[in-house]
Request: fold
Amino acid sequence: MTMKADDLRMDPDADPAPDADGIDQMLRNAEEASRFLKAISHEGRLTILCHLSSGEKSVGELETLLGVRQAAVSQQLSRLRLEGLVSPRRDGKTIYYSLAGDRPRLIMDVLHEMFCKRTG
Reply:
């Protein structure tokens, strides 16, 4: 297939280049996306999110599943909570965590599809 000069022209129906406000918004969105990706880029935090994808877990359950001390689990949960990725729920002395909303669930579904499903 031979490419013609007409093939290289911009689509006249495409959105024009963003104006200054659009660029500012794009930068804010990029900053938010970067914080989100940094939060999930840590192996321990990502593993916590994987476990929470199957449902709510207590800090003690996560400690057992991860094989690390409670202080380390709590530190990672604190970062995930700060980024709005997990939600805590207290029941007496026990604190349970779950994924907070659709965003973490969606990204975990995509990551599971990309890295965990093995097809023959």
Q: What stands out?
A: The beta strands are 57-58, 86-91, 94-99. The CA atoms of residues 44 and 63 lie 11 Å apart. The mean pLDDT is 88.
